[in-house]
Fold:
Amino acid sequence: MTDCLHKNLTLIKERTDKLRCKICHLTITSEELGENYCPECYERTGKKQYDFEKLALKPSNISQYRCEDCNATIKTKG
Structure:
């Protein structure tokens, strides 16, 4: 175990803007995808697929923090 007191915490933002490829069902954030094609479909078939559906994810009541000193992840119910 570590002796860190976790005094230098950063909130890890929860992602609720996920997209799912209609072909291979890869789930990815819109930020990661940008204006690009599905990387999984392209790797498998060499074809560029742009057909995604938006997922409506419910926000959870659990917050996550990362300790910047020891890199531990801390979860809290809120």
Notes: The helical segments are 30-33, 39-45. DSSP finds two helices and six strands in the chain. Strands lie at 9-12, 18-21, 27-29, 52-54, 62-67, 73-77. The two ends are 26 Å apart (CA to CA).
